[in-house]
Amino acid sequence: MAYEKELETALLAVQRATLLTKSVFTSHSKGTLTKSDASPVTIGDFGAQALIIASIKHVFPEDEVVGEEDADDLRANDSLRDLVWDLVTAAKLEDSAAEDKIGGPIKSKDALLEALDSGRSAGGRKGRIWALDPIDGTKGFLRGGQYAVCLALMVDGVPTVGVLGCPNLPVDDKAPLDSSIGADADSGEGKGVLFSAVKGEGASSRPLGKAGLQEAQKISMKAVTDISEATFCESVEAGHSSHGDQASIASKLGITKASVRMDSQAKYASIARGAGDLYLRLPVSKSYEEKIWDHAAGVVIVQEAGGEVTDAHGKPLDFGIGRTLKENKGVVAAPKAVFPKVIEVVKEVLGAKQ
Ligand code: AMP
Ligand code: MG
Question: Briefly, what is this protein's role (predicted)?
């Protein structure tokens, strides 16, 4: 299999970092996160980014990383740095062989800062660059709703390996989606999934564990024959995509079911395994540039599960320009067979607004 080592590294790195985010959420909700006045999102972001970059650099020292965070805040704030240090040293996989594969614990506070700062790549169209969102869906994370730890390897600007850690999605790929999914408080029994894909090799899911990797199963999008029966996913935040335009598109497609709103790339994961069907992200602002780390992993997972993803004009997403998708506006994802119909209606709705 191609990119086997990259995939294993990414899966273990995301699994370990996801455990850290869960421990931050738990201590936050129990009120034990008192040492610093930084938000749990900030602390979880720094901790998860440092752990993942340290894992990647251990196995692939030459690779670049585009990460959302850097170490500036931690350099300026000792108590924040100490808090993140305590978290990253506590987040260990309960399997020493798995832990060794991603380099074991971060060695020192300097190594922690160095790892964080290694996320400053400018991106681009050449070579191997990882795109990392340590906590995507920060609002969902705070609510105990959906969030995702997102990591993708881009090769010459093309998302090639993608992993999403979704601690609050049901393990069962067939569990139906309903509108409660985005609001559900806390990860309970039967929750926590790692999704992954390698270009040309298909997409999979497996339960998120605490040790080594659990067994994976193939996932694929649902074969939608009657599009009016489709379930469509969108952001919770009205500031991230146009709920109004999305409602018009759904209505023109004959969809009567309410949308399923959830934060983060859990939307890509949910349609990839056929729990939902469409993901609509119509722009609210003309100037906003989507970030590559908000999409790279989800896109390759949906593509490998039998889907097509473009921007709202039907243009392929260009991950090779830099840290943002500046040549694209919005995102539309759907099973290949119905994609032409969906994008036609998206264009109609956008056209009517001109
Ligand atoms: P979601 O959870 O799908 O709503 O997406 C969360 C991501 O939306 C965050 O990681 C932000 O990077 C991104 N974001 C922030 N502002 C905007 C905006 N105006 N339009 C689209 N995405 C945004
Ligand atoms: Mg994000």
Answer: Converts adenosine 3'-phosphate 5'-phosphosulfate (PAPS) to adenosine 5'-phosphosulfate (APS) and 3'(2')-phosphoadenosine 5'-phosphate (PAP) to AMP.
Task: Indicate the DSSP class of residue 215.
Answer: P
Please tell me the number of the ligand nearest to residue 143's CA: 1
43 membership: H or E segment, kind and range: helix 40-59
8 is in an annotated binding site: no
CA terminus-to-terminus distance, the chain: 47
Query: In the 8-state DSSP scheme, what is residue 120?
Result: B
* DSSP element (H, E) containing 47: helix 40-59
Confidence band, pLDDT 50/70/90 cuts, at residue 228: very high
Tell me the pLDDT tens digit for each residue of 66-104.
Answer: 998 899 999 999 999 999 999 999 999 999 999 999 999
The C-alpha atoms of residue 66 and residue 15 are separated, in whole angstroms, by 19
For the chain, the residue count is 354
Nearest-CA residue for ligand 1 atom 17 is 240
Phi, psi at 271, each rounded to 5°:
-80, -30
| 33-63: pLDDT as tens digits | 655 567 888 899 999 999 999 999 999 999 9
List ligand 1's pocket residues with C-beta within 6 A: 136-137, 235, 237, 239-240, 263-264, 284-285, 288, 291, 294
Are 202 and 3 within 8 A, CB to CB? no
Beta carbons of 36 and 42 less than 8 angstroms apart: no
Range with the lowest mean pLDDT among 134-143, 185-194, 198-207? Answer: 185-194
The separation between CA 147 and the C-alpha centre of its own chain, rounded to angstroms, equals: 8
pTM (predicted TM-score): 0.97
Catalogue the active-site residues.
45, 138
* pLDDT at residue 52, rounded to an integer: 98
